[in-house]
Amino acid sequence: MFTKACLAVLATVALTSNGVLAANHGHAQRHHHENKRDIVYESTETVTDTTWVTVTVDPNSEPATTAPVVAAASTTSSSIVVPSVVPSVSASSIPTTSSTSSIVIPTTTAIPSVSPTTLLTSTSTSAAPVASSASSYSSVAPIVSVPVVSIAAFSSPASSSAVTPTTSSTTLVASTSSAAAASSSAVVPNRAADVSTSSSSTNKRGAAYNTASLISPLIGSGSHIGWAYNWGQVDDGLSSVDSSLEFVPMLWSTREDFISTWESNAQTAISNGAKNFLSFNEPDNAGQANMDPATAASAFIQYMNPYAGSVSLGSPAITNSGTDGEGVSWLKEWVSSCGGSCAYSFCAAHWYSPADSSDFLNFVSDVYEACGNKPVWITEFAPTGADDSTISSFLEEVQDALDNDSTYSFVERYAYFYVADGYLVDGSSASSYGNTFAYGS
């Protein structure tokens, strides 16, 4: 894994229209993929001019649609800025209170440098959070004991709080709940079910996006993109761009603002024809969903299993970290913690490493094995430290293997990181490697 020196941290925060923070900002040098997990803070002699701004937030006023939320850093030799990715949580409003509060937010004239991330930050109005420091990407999610939860039926996700450990027992106890039966038409299996509703004719390639309209240059005649997701629960305009694209909702984590809207949005998605659901984003990464395997297994059973009879469910999306307790080893522990009771049909994973197609293909094979030989979705991947030409060559190699080599026929879907200006698109056109991803053979 890689590390990088950071000089300053910039963080701003505002409420979005659906109650979740949005993060979108510019970038000074495009097409550069730093390892999104390694953040090290070191003292330097660089002077940063900081201005403090006090922002008063009224929860009852019209919220801002976007606000930058950045864990920023720079080095004296380069300045690279790439956007964070924040999911949309809800099509309906999240309850607020009538009180107001003030947030003191530092701003800086230093050019920030951050790495690609699907970072979600707290919606608390107390302070804007920033990334914690680490000497390398080796952080291990805290070991938390698993609660006793229901298997045969589950309480309504909309009325339940996040899974909270209540016992040191790792036994998953079956019970019944009339409330869950009334709120979901899904038939919940007593063990993991391989309910595959994904069509074999669906193009494997997908679009990971924040802004739906940016997908347009990638879905012209001859495009291989057939599905899309945005780390969120609602499509945020995707259907108006191309109604034929399959939108795949995600339950990003068990944070209250996600689970409070999940049941309603999941049922709406099913009514609209959803075929697949994604679950927790990088639980093996302390900066993302940050869940230990046992807690994630319990949460999956509670919040995902009720929909197993209607859609295919993806495992939590792991990183490709080689640290014990992360990456594939985390997935193995999660499968073990499920004890056959998590109704997942495929496993999701992310890959960020130097441009080496063999390393990438070996990783997806390891995920397949850890997943119990179920299908694999690579929902984020990109070579680090590569120029456009290198990225295109890398994509040509891995796409040929994933699409044409029967050895990797278990890879059901894959999505490059990601649909944004300076990445898969340049303005109103596909970028050079965006063209390779969307239209290349």
UniProtKB/TrEMBL annotation:
Leader sequence segment: 1-22
Asl1-like glycosyl hydrolase catalytic domain: residues covered: 206-435
Entries under InterPro entries matching the protein: ASL1, Asl1_glyco_hydro_catalytic, GH
GO cellular component, one term: fungal-type cell wall
Keywords annotated in UniProt: Signal
Gene Ontology terms describing biological process: fungal-type cell wall polysaccharide metabolic process
Coiled coil (residue ranges): none
Family annotation (Pfam families): Glyco_hydro_cc
Domain of life: Eukaryota
Protein name: Asl1-like glycosyl hydrolase catalytic domain-containing protein
Organism in which the protein naturally occurs: Cytospora mali (Apple Valsa canker fungus)
Organism phylogeny: Eukaryota, Fungi, Dikarya, Ascomycota, Pezizomycotina
